[in-house]
Amino acid sequence: MRILLATYWAIPHVGGVWKYMLQLKERLEAMGHQVDMLGNSPDNTKIHMPGSNKELSKDVLRPLVMAKLNAARVPQVHSDHFVLHCEFERYYMELAAAYFGVAQYDLIHTQDIFAARAFERVRAPRTALVAHVHGSVALELTMNYKLNPQLGVKEGDPAWLYFNGLEHYGANAGHITVTANNWQKELLVQSFGVQANRISVFPYGLDIDAFTRKLKQGTTVSRPPGKKVIICPARLAFVKGIDVLIAALYRLKQRRQDWVCWIVGNGEKRDDLLRQTAELQLQQEVLFLGERDDIPGLLNNSDIFVHACIQDNQPFSVMEAQVAGLPALVSSAGGLPEMVQHGVNGLISPVRDTLTLATQLEMLLENDALRRQLGHNARQWAAKQWSMNTMMSNVIRVYQTAIAKSRIP
């Protein structure tokens, strides 16, 4: 088959969607399929197809989109600057895809609601379309609006309605919808009007043997003597809940000081998080390591993994921590309770509950036997649950179903 993997997000980039696309491309090509990729450039100035000479500047497309989306023609789109930005970006992708030509593909596998909506409008009639939903854009944004009233967006406002509508149309695009867990499926069915019978649910896979080899490659970051290491690899964004972790660590410091926390990653909230850390006088305990390419080595040098997010789907960071044999302390957000068995291979705390998270951290710092047992169980769980071969069997099944549906007159 000729397959196009497409996303609204930048490629390459640091994050789970790109990691998923890379491993999917590698496995599909090993099976004899021809696979291309399409997405935004890292500097967000063009739509491109890495590995080819196909790219199209947004400066070229902007006048065309402006003619379509001018204020006189669609005043409702201009009522919110973020809505306007997203509509421009969606049309850039749609026009670039039409310019590059996508009729040659047997199947297009989109990785977000923006790309799914765009390619639904430009695909050839007999090209199958799979809409993979890796998270909820609408839920993340409306949650952000609720928690930050200073943004001025209330329920029923144009921006609120726009993203809910986009989630509905994007998730319903094409021939079949894919989610990684039942939480995401139920959200699409209950909140965004997607028919349950069009959704296929299966988890991501991980090349466990390859990742296990990386664990042994080490890191230049040393464990501080006499301290246990808490690690949180995550994008420094609102939705990842790093501020929740820092607040819990402040509580923890009042009880014991035999730990440090490595926060690995970068993002738009970095300055805010550094400020919070300084205000709580945690500069000696909480270390911001930035973006790094030795995360497996850092995990292998750590004792406890934390993901205190406000919203997430099936983060690769949790999967990798489990392969590394670390107990995972996660929030109850999104699909995380389907990844961690509370009290068996990790611990779950309510979203934004700093007291419970601090108590759980203290318990694992105090009880070495429990911490090691949870980590041992996590490694065994990961070996069974995150099979790459199982994931690829599910992917091919979905592709065959979508192609069969695309052939129906």
Automatic annotation (TrEMBL):
Domain Glycosyltransferase subfamily 4-like N-terminal intervals: 14-209
One Pfam match: Glyco_transf_4
Top-rank taxon, per record = Bacteria
Database matches in SUPFAM superfamilies: UDP-Glycosyltransferase/glycogen phosphorylase (SSF53756)
List the InterPro entries: Glyco_trans_1, Glyco_trans_4-like_N, Glycosyltransferase_grp1
**What GO annotations for molecular function exist for this entry?**
glycosyltransferase activity
Per UniProt, which keywords does this protein have?
Answer: Transferase
**What sequence ranges are listed for the domain Glycosyl transferase family?**
224-381
Q: What is this protein called?
A: Glycosyltransferase family 1 protein
Q: Which organism is it from?
A: Paenibacillus albus
